[in-house]
Each structure stands twice: as C-alpha cells, then as structure tokens.
Design a protein that fits this description.
This protein is an all-alpha fold. The chain has one domain. 64% of the residues lie in helices and 0% in strands. The chain is globular and about 35 Å long.
C-alpha cells in the first residue's frame, strides 16, 4: 500500500512539475529537473511516461539545468552523478523530438560530462560517464560541429 501511495505522489508531483514546464515559467527547466533528479537513481524505479517524455524534449537543456541546480562539489559526487547520467541519456534518446532546436546540439552536455569525467576518481563511474558521452555523441551524430 505504501508503494502505491508513493507512486501516486511521485506521479502527481511530476505531472504538476511538467505542467509548470509547459507554461513557460521555468525557461531552463530547473524545477522539472530538480523535482525528477531522484528518478535517475535506482534501476528498479518506476518510470513515468510523462516525465520521460519531458526529458526527451529537453536535450541539452538538462545539462543547463543541472549546472544551475548543482554546485561544483555535487557535480563530482558519485551518488549525484549516478542520479543524473540516466537523465542525460533520456534527454538525448530521441533527438528529433527535442523542443528547442539549439538544445539538439549537446554542447553544454558534452562539456559537463567531460568535466565530470576528468574530475572523478571512481573508475567504474568514469566508465559510465564515458559510455554516456559515447551515447550522446552517437545519438546526435556530429551535431556539435559549428
């Protein structure tokens, strides 16, 4: 019963946050990303389609929001990195549906990921960051060129 209540609470919070995004009162998607940052964590977490679609429409905007939300220490905290890597992957899983044309180019995302890669010491996490870099580059297929 507790799991069901938790699911519905998360669902309604996410829908409310997503609705706020649509309204345009949060141009950097900070509220949306902050509210859903925990979702990237446990692999057995329930995925909410509306939230996933929200991330898929953000692209590079996710990295911009993360830079506004997290401080320098948090950007290299292993638990935080483990939480945001799946969000970055979601944000570039379907580049064709990214809402803002400029966010289809992963310029800020790759800058962030390369910074994280160079400033963490955990080898397995470093490999995961590299896999995320490779994923983003593969999905965007050279869109970083000027």
């Amino acid at each position: 019963m507790r799991t069901v209540a938790l699911f519905f609470s998360a669902f309604f919070l996410s829908i409310t946050t997503l609705a706020g995004q649509v309204a345009g009162d949060d141009p950097y998607a900070i509220k949306f990303v902050r509210a859903n940052l925990h979702i990237g964590g446990p692999p057995d977490a329930v995925e909410i389609p509306a939230v996933t679609k929200g991330f898929q429409r953000l692209g590079d905007g996710v990295a911009i929001a993360l830079l506004k939300i997290l401080d320098q220490q948090q950007l290299t905290d292993p638990e935080t990195v483990k939480a945001f890597l799946p969000l970055i992957q979601k944000s570039f899983s379907y580049p064709s549906i990214i809402s803002i044309e400029a966010n289809k180019k992963p310029s800020v995302t790759l800058l962030l990921l390369k910074y994280v890669h160079g400033n963490i010491s955990d080898l397995s996490l470093k490999q995961e960051v590299q896999r995320t870099i490779d994923f983003v580059e593969r999905k965007t297929n050279g869109l970083t060129s000027p």
